[in-house]
Amino acid sequence: MNSSIFSAIFLLKRVLIGSIEHIFPIIISILFCVLFIKYSKLKFSSKQQYKALHALGCLVSLTVIAFHLYKISLEGYNITTDLPLYLCSLMALFIPVFTKYRKYWMFEILVFWILGGTVQGVVTPDIAVGFPSFDYFRFWAVHLGVLIIIFYAIFVFKMSPKLASVFKSYFALQAYVFLMILINYVLNANYFYLLEKPKSASLLDYFGDWPYYIIVVQIILIPYFLLIYLPFYWIEKRKKRIEEKTI
Q: Which structural domain, as residue segments, surrounds residue 229?
């Protein structure tokens, strides 16, 4: 009886600690994102806004680089599992290119990749070692960092995708998938989970075994991107109505 009680308490403790480790960085990032955007809009000049966004982009990218240098220093770095080729890590690695040049075609691709893919990672995190490991901080810095960057671009720089952006982002993702297929073949790896689902719980668990989950994702991807595009469409439509009334 006592052992059952202790087991239940231990399980409850693990769940609570896991929940705190999951929820706390999200709450902190939401607060930071809101304050960062509001302060930038009120206090920064355009030049300062560009510098602030680029500084954040560089910080996110340097976190990825530092983490991989750290793992290499420990030895046992495995190119079949450890390279920064998963979509979120790859985006984080190259996000300074977007924050530096702010090209619209980059935004068109990133907005759906980040809002579509990174959010899923935030909801169901795949972290090998929990708090207070480097992997824990790297995971949240990458996933929440790129989300803050894309929200900054939306709310500060007023960047907004078009309907055509949905398909541009989709086909760019297909190019990435094709590249990962080649790399997985050469390295006998599983980047982007194209050969096996992640060990941790994820939405892919609801889509069947390999290769069915890949097929299901391909089928729902454009409707999913369209769903993400919908708020932007409504906002743009509302703006046009207001403009027509003022004319």
A: 2-246
Domain count, the chain: 1
* C-alpha neighbours within 13 Å on the C-beta side of residue 198: 16
CB half-sphere exposure, 60, CA atoms < 13 A: 30
- What pLDDT is attached to residue 211? 85
Q: Distance (Å, rounded) from C-alpha 28 to C-alpha 210?
A: 36
- Residue 124 near residue 50 (C-beta atoms within 8 A): no
Q: What's the pLDDT tens digit per position in 195-235?
A: 888 776 677 777 888 888 899 989 999 999 999 999 999 99
Asked whether the whole model's pTM tops 0.70, one would answer yes
d(CA 95, CA 79): 22
Q: At residue 208, what is the residue type?
A: G
Query: Contact 21/131 with Cβ under 8 angstroms?
Result: yes
